[in-house]
Amino acid sequence: MDITIRLPQTKSEWEDYYDLRYRILRKPLGQPRGSEKDDGDETGIHFALYHEGELRAIARLDELDLNLCQVRYVAVENKQQGKGYGKVIMYAVEQEAEQIGYDKIILHARENALNFYLRLEYVNLGESYLLFDQIQHYKMEKEL
Ligand SMILES: CC(C)(COP(=O)(O)OP(=O)(O)OC[C@H]1O[C@@H](n2cnc3c(N)ncnc32)[C@H](O)[C@@H]1OP(=O)(O)O)[C@@H](O)C(=O)NCCC(=O)NCCS
After folding, report:
1. What is the pTM of this model?
2. Which segments in the chain show pLDDT lower than 50?
3. How many independent structural domains does the chain possess?
């Protein structure tokens, strides 16, 4: 498979990256454009998975402290879910995190994604927060 995971490069690739984040993670919750971005976009490491040149999945890795990191904004294009892209981008994120030297990776999973992360051997630590008063999240972690 012709899969590449890298930073978006051109202005148009960056637009597609944030557009995917918006359409998959914010629009369904009735949130406005712009709500898909935060200050961590300046410092986080961005991952974009392209298959045959098309953007299929995204993720961002944030440092929490020297040993600990967090993956955020994991999303796969609507009609491309369930084809393995989520798993592949998560492995790339974990590999990078391990290389940087973090011991552990954490995340806050939506209820619908819990089983996806359990499948990737994340441990469920229980309820964390309610996003926009509607989406329950669960804190999960994995030793690297
Ligand atoms: C959740 C999401 C990132 C998973 O990515 P994906 O590409 O659809 O998942 P994959 O095809 O890589 O699945 C990997 C494994 O997890 C399983 N899996 C994926 N989603 C699952 C789900 N919702 N429930 C149960 N198992 C699931 C798959 O069966 C697969 O198992 P396998 O390794 O035995 O084949 C993606 O569906 C998505 O973007 N969903 C909408 C946005 C979202 O909820 N993002 C997460 C925010 S925390």
Report:
1. 0.95
2. none
3. 1
